[in-house]
Structures are given as C-alpha cells and as structure tokens.
Amino acid sequence: MRRIVTWIALGGLLLSTAACGGGSRGTGGTGAGESLAVGFVAEPANLDFTSTEGAAIPQALLVNVYEGLVKLGQDGTVQPLLAEKWDVSPDRRTYTFTLRDNVTFSSGAPFTADDVVFSLDRVRTDWKLKIKAQLDVIDKVEKKDDSTAVVTLKRPSNGFLYSMATRLGAMFSRTGVSDLANKPVGTGPYVLASWKRGDSIRLEAAQKYWGAKPSLTAVTLKYFKDATAMNNALLTGGIDVISSVQAPESLRQFADPGRFETVEGTTNGEVVLSMNNGRPPFDDKKVRQAVRHAIDHKALLDTAWAGRGQLIGSMVPPTDPWYEDRTGDRPYDVAKARALLGGKTYTVKMRIPNLPYAVAAAQVVKSQLAQVGITADIEPLEFPARWLDVVFKQGDYHMSIINHVEPRDMGIFADKSYYFRYDNPEFGKLLASADQGSEQQQADDLKKAAKLLSDDAAADWLFLFPNLIVAKKGVTGLPKNGISESFDFTGLAKQ
Amino acid sequence: MRGRPNAALVIGGALVGLVVLAALTSFVWTPHDPTYVDAAGKLREPGDGYLLGADKFGRDTLSQLMVGARTTLYVGIVAVGVAALIGTPLGVVAGMAPRSQGWLSELIMRLNDLVFAFPALLLAVMLAAVYGAGTLTAMAAIGVATVPAFARVARAATMQVMVTDYILAARAAGRRRTAIAVRHVLPNIGSVLIVQASVSFAIAILAEAALSFLGFGTRPPTPSWGRMLQESQELLFSTPRLALWPGLAVALAVLGFNLLGDGLRDHLDPRLRRVRAEG
Fold first, then answer.
1. Looking at the partner chain, which of B35, B56, B250 has a beta carbon nearest the beta carbon of A16?
2. pTM metric for this prediction
C-alpha cells in the first residue's frame, strides 16, 4: 500500500510537470545537412485533396508535389508556374495557356495539354469538395497543341485565375490518379518518399525537375497533436521549424536570437465567432449586433492569443486588395450592447472545436457576454470529426469559434445552407457582380459585401490568425505571410 | 497505542480537511470571480489582493484553486459513490454465493475482470467521444472503472465474514440471505470499504485532473486543477507558478486521501491493532 501511495503522489507531481516530459524526439533533421524537419499540427486523413476536405493535404502537397499552371506569390498576385504565360481574350472569357516544355510527372510521363484538359475536367466529374463550385464557371477546356491549352468560361470571372492557383488548379497525370490517397503523382520539385501514419511524411527532391532544383534533398513533415510537444521538439533538435505556433505565450522560450528566428506575418485565417443566423436568438440581427458590441476584441486577442494577430472586423484579410479596416463598425460598447438587447437575457450553446485558439477565445467571449446578459455554455467538441458533424454539417449550435483558413472565402456567406445560415440575397448579388465586373468594380463590390456582412453582423470576427513561424537559426526561405494553401518548401534552405 | 490515531491518519485527515474547507468556503466566498477575464490583470504578480497572482486571462489563481477543489471533490464523491453502490452489492453477492452457486460468483468476478481491463482514462475518452466531454461523463467513466476494485474487496471481505460463528448461527436460525447480508455482512466489511473508498478517491482525483488536462474533463471555464495545469503549459518557462499551484494541489490532495486510507486501515483493522499492541 505504501508503495502505491508513493507512486500516486509521484504521479501527481509528474502531472504537474507533464509539460517538461511531453517532448518527442523527431526522426527528421538527423540526415545530412541538406534536409529539414518541419513541425505541423494537423495530419492529413489521406493524401487525396480532390475528395477529402481539410487544409492539411494541400498544405503539404500543393506547390511541393503538385503544381498548377499558376501559383500564388508572396505578394498575393498570380504568377506563372507550369504555364509560361497566358493570354486573355478581349471579352475576358477565353484564357490561352502556353505550357512549359520538358515538364515531366514523377512517374516519368510527360506533361502536356492533354493533362490540363484531363485535370480540369476531372474537377467537375470526380472532385467531391464544396469549393469545386469555384470552377463551375468553366465552359470547356481544349487542347490546341501539345503545349497550348485553351479554357473558355461561361462568363467573365475575376476569381477564375485565382482559383487556378489553389488546389483546384493542380495538374494530375492521366496515368497517375489510381491511388491518390496514398500515391500522389505530380510535377513538383518534391516527391512523396514515405508516410508514417500518425507521425510524419517525408518528401524527397524529385530526380528530374523542370525548374531550379530545391536546395534541400528532403523535407520531413512531423505531426504533433500538442503545441507543447512541438515546442519541445524544436528546443531539443527534433525538428528545425515550427510551421505554426499554437501556444503564442511560449514564444519567449525562443527569444534567443543566437539560436532561433521568429517570422511573424498574416494569414488568410479569419477566426470567426459564428452565430447561427437561422435559429433564435441569433436570427435577430439586433442580438447579433449586440454580441459584436459586447466583445472587447483587443482584450480578447491580448489574453487568448498573446496579442499576436490582427483585428479585422469582417471577412477580408489585409493581404486582399479590397481590404478595408472594419474594426470601427461595431466598437466595444457594453451600454450599446445592453440597449440592443433591450433588457432580455439569453442562454446559448457555444459548441467549439477542441483546438487551442478556440478554447482560449471561448472563455474570454463567455466572460464578456456574461456582462450583457448572455450566458454562453461552452461545449468543446472533438475536432475534426465531431465538430464537423454536429456544427458544420447539422448546424446544431448557437455559437461557435473556428479559424476559416481558405483564401478569399467570403463567398461562404452567400451559401445559405452553410453553417452560418446567413441569408441575404443582396450579398450574393454583390459577389456575382464582383466576379464579372472590371477589376475596379470587383474591388468596389467586395468592399461593399464586406461592409454588408459587418452591418448585418452575420458573424463576429475575433481576429486574424497570425502566421507565426519559429525556426532554428540558419533556416531561410520561410514565408512571411501564410496566404496560400500550401506551405511552400521550394525556397527553403539551411545555411 | 490502542485508540490513538496514527500519523498517517492525522496528516491525511489534515490534508483532506484543507481541500474540503477550501471547497466549502468557495461556495460562499472567493477572493475574486474565478472566471472573470481581466485583460488589464494579465499574468498579475502575487500580492495586492491577488495572493497567488493571476493567469494569462487575468483570473485570480487562488479563487480558481478554491473552486477547483470543489470540482475535484464533486467528481470524487460521485465517482466513488457510483463505484461503491454498484461494486459492493456485486462483491457481497459473489462472496455469499454458496458452493452450489459457484458459477454465479465466477460470472460476476469474470465480468468484473473484463471491466477492470479497461483503464479509467480510456473509458472516459471513449465516453467523451460518444456523449461529449464534460464533468458528468468523466464521473461516470471513473466510477464505472472503479467498480471492480470495490467488488473484489467486498467479495474477499464477505468470504472472510461468511465463515465466522455468528453467520453460522444466523443461518442456523433460518435467517434469509438478504437479511444476513444487510444485518451481519455489510456492517462487518464496512471498515474495509471505507479504506477502499479513500484510496479510490485519490485515484479519481488524479483521473479527473488527467482528463481535464487532456480536454476530456470539466468544461471550460469552470475551474479545474487539471485544466489549470494544461493552460499553464505554454507559460511553464516564463511563469512557472501557474503550474506549481495546481500541481501542488493535485499532489497534496492525492497524498491526503491515500494517507487517510492508509491510516484508516491501520486504525480500523483489529488484527493489525492487536499485533501492534503486543509488539
């Protein structure tokens, strides 16, 4: 019995210092000086981003293994990749892509216009993602000759070329789609070498690549369930880079400039406090507006996420050309919030994913809403499976908190079956007109759309998720802003 | 020696008393609202009305510890209660089964082994996945996982009691089995069960803390020692006191209940008492 006492007491002490022991030794970073290990938080369910939702798959594979005709540059502009150049017809409905020569897939098959036709047709026929609707604007894709592909649109679209830079535009080999979930075949500078499920994915430099060879021979993507474990892995040398810091208060651990470097920028990730517009009490615009007045966003960001990130106020990140600062629309004003509620009190279900930022932010939101008479019962659901099922699919919630990471995703508010259940035809009209109009009109319309969302309080925007990367000193080529869907390894180097 | 409480009992009792006192006090008074987020008081140093300082949300650590004690006791009492209410009757029935009904005893105990094979934490994670994380699922899981411990102890003690002369006398007098169980068996195995309850309580505290640490236990923002530990992880190097206090609270509470169980066993076990008195 005494021994049991000792052990249990020891157990208690151990638990209190569990953070110290949570480290996991990486397998990566042990090879020659030419390879890097990068820590990530979410492991892909499989490697097929044509049929499986989730940001983790394109994050690992797009640009690195799969390439599109175009890609997104650090400045947010669309840049040539597999297409050397493209011409747009005067009616803006025909895009003629001139393809690069000497491009081959990792299987050895040459990349030609036939693959472009195949890949883009396949989006319509085989893809299962919600976002594939973005390419519904394509009327037909044709091969003019081996190195020229012509895409005809049903109507002019400003969003088309941008969509082509996302996973939707990834080029697949006609002979390489039999086992997408396990064997990706792309034209990129890296190929999949191995995948240890629950642990890591290893990418190695392709034998034959059309462009400049990456300076690394291999990149290992290590997946961690726990932010502290990832921090410890960097401290002990298990990994070389933390791709996204999940515990911003811990950044002080990496303050030593002789050992570590920190990159801080913006992302496309709007951390949204979603309110179910289709269900009382949030079917009432006044209640939603009251919520926006009741939240002190600055205090929330300072406490929940160590002040890292940016306040936004609507669904547009500052890297998009039509960004406007909308934080002043509904400033923190408890008296106004109370007035809008008219003395009524509510109790709502706040069903959040069990992710660090959501759990932290939810506690601040709850405390602040309590001051105006809204009781929010926090219920953390396992992410992704349970949260996606209960909140995202069934819409069984009043409030939630989630980081919407997809680029240029304001359009989700136009879909009234989306879990926000926001329904304002005016908003849909603005988006449609923005997509078809001139560049100027696009920017004007999207600004109006963002303002409309803010005025309607379709949701509340807590903050813009920061791009926080910590790396060992000497690692170069890390992206300052995380604005594309992929974590681009092509420019990474180790000195 | 006889009748004088031993050191383990005194220390254990004092530690448990401290936890109970903190929990009871928290119902009527805490220094501050334990869930009020105060950005201006972020990581406030100890002092100035905040005896142990504040966490990254500006919440008073002492207030959180006090309400956390309440959560801990609540989970412990319900989990141990569930385990005792289910486990004890099962154990007594198995222990009282006559030789002709040996299969009944076997059946109960083998089913018991089956439940015993599942660690409490695993059971809790499974329940949390199905019914959602929360104090209730944590309590249910810890309770169910503790049932076998009670059943085993109750069975062993019952079998010892069943061969005594007074049971023989009661049976000879034609008492029914339920009457024997209630009148004679239960009072005589009570002390063993109390000891078991105390030890199980310690395990339940540890399990609740672990579950909350993992995000499967008490829901935020209700204070819980386990979640306080979890939230202090990222600040372990810059503000270690945030992990120190809840860690200490868990360790002391667990130690307290274990010492209490140990002390009670020594105090209540007549054979041990006799050995000591003679020695």
1. B250
2. 0.84
What is the distance in angstroms between the Cα of A19 and the nearest Cα belonging to chain B? 6
Q: Looking at the structure, do residues A403 and A300 belong to the same domain, yes or no?
A: yes
Q: Work out the minimum CA distance from B182 to partner chain A, whole angstroms.
A: 29
Look at the block and give the residue holding tokens 């992410």: A383
Q: Where are the alpha helices (DSSP H) in A371-424?
A: 385-387
Judge whether A242 is closer than 8 Å to chain B, CB to CB: no
The CA dihedral of A249, A251, A255, A257, to the nearest 10 degrees, is: -160
Confidence band of A414 (pLDDT split at 50, 70, 90): very high
Would you state the pLDDT for residue B146? 93
Q: Which of B209, B213, B255 sits opposite A9 (nearest CB)?
A: B255
Closest CA to A436 of A179, A16, A91: A91
Residue B246, chain A, CB below 8 Å: the answer is yes
Instruction: Determine contact: A382 vs chain B, CB below 8 A.
Output: yes
Using CA atoms, how far apart are residues A265 and A219, in angstroms rounded to an integer?
23
**Chain A residues lying within 8 Å of B261, measured CB to CB:** 1
Give contacts of A382 with chain B, Cβ < 8 Å.
Answer: 128-129, 133
Last residue in a domain, options A157, A182, A207: A182
Of A303, A367, A380, the CB nearest to B215: A380
Interchain proximity A8–B203, CB inside 8 Å? yes
pLDDT at B1: 45
Query: Among A210-224, A230-244, B156-170, B264-278, which is the least confidently predicted range?
Result: B264-278
| CB of B58 less than 8 A from some CB of A | yes
Question: For residue A24, is pLDDT > 80?
Answer: no
Question: ∠ at Cα B92 (B90, B95), nearest 5°?
Answer: 110
Last residue of a domain, one of A161, A182, A203: A182
The ipTM of this complex is: 0.86
Reported as a single tens digit per residue, the pLDDT across A113-129 is 999 999 999 999 999 88
Residues A454 and A359 in one domain: yes
In-domain check, residue A81:
yes
State pLDDT tens for residues B89-145. Answer: 999 999 998 888 889 999 999 999 999 898 888 888 888 878 878 889 999 999 999
Please provide the average confidence, as pLDDT, over all residues in chain A.
Answer: 89
CA atoms of A152 and A93, how far apart (whole Å):
6
pLDDT surpassing 70 at residue A20: no
Q: In the numeric block, which tokens belong to residue B58?
A: 């500006």
User: Which residues in chain B touch residue A231, judged by CB atoms under 8 angstroms apart?
Assistant: 234
pLDDT, residue B3, reads 59
User: Which residues in chain A have their CB less than 8 angstroms from residue B202's CB?
Assistant: 8
Work out how many domains chain A is built from and give that number: 2
Residue A325's CATH number: 3.10.105.10
| A391 is a domain residue | yes
Asked whether residue A173 falls in the same domain as residue A276, the answer is no
Residues of A in contact with B259 (CB under 8 A): 5
Max Cα-Cα span within chain B: 76
- Top residue of B224, B233, B259 to mutate, by most chain A CBs within 10 Å, is B233
Which residues constitute the domain of residue A76? 66-182
For CA atoms A21, A25, A29, A30, the dihedral sign is positive
Split at pLDDT 50, 70, 90, the class of A11 is very low
**CATH code, A145:** 3.90.76.10
Q: What is the set of domains in chain B, with CATH numbers? A: 7-17+52-271 (1.10.3720.10)
* Residue B59: closest CA among B200, B195, B221: B221
Q: For A287-307, what is each residue's pLDDT tens digit?
A: 999 999 999 999 999 999 999
Asked if residue A434 is part of any domain, the answer here is yes
- Cβ atoms of A458 and A410 closer than 8 Å: no
pLDDT digits (tens, 9 = 90+) for B11-58: 999 999 999 999 999 999 999 999 999 999 999 999 888 999 999 999
Q: Are residues A143 and A286 in the same domain?
A: no
Nearest to B199 by CA among A2, A200, A346: A2
